[in-house]
Amino acid sequence: MAAQVFAFILHKDGKADDTALELAVASQKIAPGAAPVAVVTGAGAALDGVCQELTASYAEVWKFASDTLAYPNAEIIRMLLLKALPKGCTLLLPHTTFGMDLGPGLAVKMDAAYVSDVTAIDGLDGATLKAVRQEFNGQVCTHLACDMSKGAVVSVRSGCFQAGDPGAAGGKVVDKSGEVGELSGRRRFVEVLQAEVGDVDITKEDVLVSVGRGIGDKENLPMADELAKAMGAVVSCSRPVVDAKWLEKGRQVGTSGKTVKPKVYLALGISGSFQHMGGLKGNPFIVAVNKNPKAPIFQVASVGVVADLLEFVPELTEKIMAAK
Amino acid sequence: MEILVCVKRVPDSAENEIEVKPGGADIKRDDLVYSVNEWDNYAVEEAIQIVDRVGGSVTVATIGNEESEEVVRREMAMGANSGLMLVDPAFEGSDGRGIAAILAAAVRKGKYDLVLTGAQADDGAGQVGGMLAALLDWPYASLVNMIEVQDKKLRIGREIEGGNQEINEIMLPCVLSIQTGINEPRYVGIRGIRKVASVEIPVMNAAALGLDSAGLGPAGARVKRLDYFVPPAGAGAEILEGSTDEITVKLIDLLKAKGGLK
Amino acid sequence: MQPALIAPANASFLGIPATILFILIPLVGIGVFAYIMTHRIAPLLQAAPDRRFNRYPERIRAVVKVWLAQWRHPRYLLAGVLHIIVFFGFLVLAARSTQLVVLGFVDGFALPGFGGAFGHLYNILKDYAGTAVFVCAVILAVRRLAFKPARYAVPERYGKDHTPEAIFVLGLICTLLVSESVFDASLVAAQAAQGQPTHFLSPLALAWFFRHLLAGASLPVLQGLHLAAYTIHDLAFFFFLCFLPMGKHFHVITSLFNVFFMRLDAGNVKPVRHGVDESKLDELKSFGVKKFEDFTWKHMLDFYSCADCGRCSDRCPANRVQRPLSPRFISIKARDWCFKLYPLWGRKPAESAALIGGIYSEDEIWSCTTCGACEQECPLGIEYIDKMVDLRRGMVDEGMVPQSLQKPLSALEKRGNPWGKMEKKRADWAAGVGEGCRVKLFEKGEAAETLYFVDSITSYDDRMQKIAQATARILCAAGVDFGVLGKDEKDSGHEVRRFGEEMLFQALKEHNTETIQAAEVKRVVTTDPHAYNALKKDYQNLPPVQHISEVMVDAIQSGRLKFKPDENGKTYVYHDPCYLGRHNALYDAPRQAIDAIPGIRRAEMSGDCRDRSFCCGGGGLMLFYEPEEEMRMGVVRVKMAQAAGADVIVTACPFCLVNIEDAIKVAGLEGKMEAVDLSELIDRHIQR
Lengths: 324, 262, 688
Hints:
Chain A is an alpha/beta fold and about 325 residues long. Chain A has helices at about 20-30, 45-55, 75-85, 95-110, 220-230, 240-245, 275, 295-300, 310-324; strands spanning about 5-10, 10, 15, 35-40, 60-65, 90-95, 115-125, 130-135, 140-145, 150-155, 170-175, 185-195, 205-210, 235, 265-270, 285-290, 305. Chain C is mainly α and about 700 residues long.
């Protein structure tokens, strides 16, 4: 018997995070056909919109509204989930900074197994879940067997479970705010300090749009910015671009710059010197766009486009924007 | 402040090319070089800096065998006051939960105000810190990139998406998992390690920790690694052909599939 | 016959014999000078040891060449020639000044041997010497005030402009020369006025002019001038003597010693502590220079000797691209710091604070590429590389190492190369050498006469591997029986040592020495000047080490290498790598090898070649360091090559190639200019 599957939903500005759909997909891999339950916490009117949105892909949406839940504090939410979730259930979390904060401790308190950052789920065999995760910066993958008999907390890497159409699950919203009770913890959220522009830390980014010498001129840089914006990525670069002072030093990938570990690396007009590639770790999916079909970057890239980036990039940006 | 930092000896992915043995039972370990987990190193530096500011001492603990001693010595060369080796055959093959249980026992044997771990390791799941806190029933925060000591509590920063920083106040005692970049760890060379080469490092086994070996080792692990395999990767780039239109469509599909579009 | 004027020794003021004053001035002057000097010598006695009381013939040769013959001065022609005149003028005038001092209490005194004809000759000489020095001093002052050569400028972060001090001293020198001349001229004018036979005054010399100016003066005026000039000279002379140890003019006193004790070898690095054997380094409590007293006494003497001429910084590539380093201020700041730590009066500060964070910044010290341009230029034999290395040793010992350098250092410790690449892949490049040339592997038990030491970058960097492959083909073509160490080779550690990580260097050296010795070869050949310098200067007990350019020239001369003509009509320039040129004086072999290609057109970056070559940006660990700079050194270099009309820059160092190839891109010269390694150039032209 497949235990009940719950998914914890992150949301922002009245919209559910992309991971909400991905978790729905992942839940189907664990318990095909079962009706997953979305758990939404928060405060204010915007929460209702989120819940409504989720009814398309979840059979049931549990809503917990309370001023204490206005900002997701992992400690508070752990208490809430321990009260609200049935024993032995499976909870899916997005493997985000919040998921990392919540998951391990919650699993211990639920006396459930914890599987983090899974990239694929092969399915359930009895009470054993078989899943895939990466190690050593993505250089190798492993299959895991997880004993689900006492329940499990599974955190899921974003982008790995491709959501199709939101569908029409026709789910219902259940307001469980009344069951919350008093929640207080020993950790208090104070505020979020917004990163300043230029504060970007390329070493922590999952998707990088990296520009090289091929960008030609500083005036062409906005082109890369726009593409990055469309992709939800951040702009990095190779050394010549920093030397020309078109971008600040903190954006440079390479042995004399930053070592980055993105999942996707879009190399625009980068030839791919040893010194540059030395700063690229973690076996990312590399897309190389270069005029020169003999550029060494094509040897290490996963996908190549032989084109003038000045023509190709605006096209790509336009298409991505159109697809949104 | 008495601080315990939990560290781990790992094959550093920056200095190794990880390859899988035929059959996938393990990675090829013959040519691996090991070092202290990068995140743990930041945690030790942070502990040393805290003690420099407010006094106290730093203890560095690791679970492992004799080989793990090198990383403890390295961290002691950095400036940690003492080391602690948790060694027992029963510990081998424990999952994250088991590791957290061993560390929790070690924490209970001491008198610590603060326990630091690295946020994650190259060969781990980023779970031990949170589990340890839950077992101790201490408050916890992950991905910490700033610590300010206040009276009986800490003001901390967590690194969250978009490079933003989430500020929290957390009561002591607590467990924090440390994110890289919180400080600039000092360099330790061969000379530093030789200086602490003869310092005695206490060793504790399961019995000394008062641990029941049930729940430890492979038998107690609820999450097991079945095999290793290499994610499929093409030799050289697949060059996309066709009109710009066709190429962009193909590329967008690929980017989507690989999580490159958010 | 009565003297025309009363001599200083016989004069009196208000009935008191002036002799008292003229004895008192030297006594006080010498007393104060001695007091100052004891305070200046005090830190030298606290300093780290330095083995310089040795190799006397070489040291005397250095003194004759660098000090007496002012060998390095004409490299800056105008300033150099002016200095040579002033220097020799001072040497000549020293005797006259001594005589003058004694004249204050011994009338008619002459230095022994200066009595007769020699004395007359000397007087003519000193008249003209004084005049020449005077003219030079005026020119120097005008140059300082009106033309303001850029290299004397003091950037804001280093404090106030040094011009006032320079002008003050030039004024003091002029005062000495004028007073000495007026002293003579007034006497001669008085002699003439009284119809006495006049002393000879060299025509057109300073005194001669004054004598004519004073022709109509009355006797009392002349008498007054005579005594006043004497007194002023006496006072100025002793004031100057005591002023010298206060600043940059200390070099007038210390230069002789500084040059005598100067560095006699190039390319080497001082031991961690003189007198402590490499095997006993573990016993040292502290490494390197952390506080002022950790410098060696010679390095302190360097600080005293700096004349603030700015030549080092003018040639320093780090300073040129505005990294936060100027060798001149390494010295000036340390000197000022020393004066504060060892004050002439008042109490010495209890503790000598850390230099890093005090007068130096971390980035300042990491900015040096150890190219050696500063040391090559310094007319006083001041050294910088050893100080940089010692300061870095101190920082490494304290754990102050930039994150960008910690990774490669850790990889070097674990894997023997800074990228953390697998040992077993070290000789993978050999697979690309091609048909007809086999690279033997000592690791596989093969034997050969010559060992090709490849070093890390040439082994692993896919671009630089082409140098290794070209080298292998050259060695094959030249009929050399050679092999490589493969996985048994580790990084030479050249940069590891120069970045201050001595213990790691020692470990690498020990490993390589053992494996090279075990290979039982007759010689070692390398293409990497850093490896070449390390094996030659830092290692001991190895077979003879040659750079590939020497092997090439040998094979060309014996007819084993023959070339196809170069017919592409391009102009080549050769860039001297620092560790081949300045540090090992291998300037000609690479040029001979290039010139042996028939029809090749080679130009020189005149003024910036050979020992004035401009560093490409630095090798080894410098590739990993993120300096603060306005421009890359390589770009400056590429522009020099462009100015020389180059289509192709030939270098003989893999690091130069990395930096120059990058710089060509940054300078926007891609497609217009190309960089190749000497080995690649030769390989392309071999007639097979």
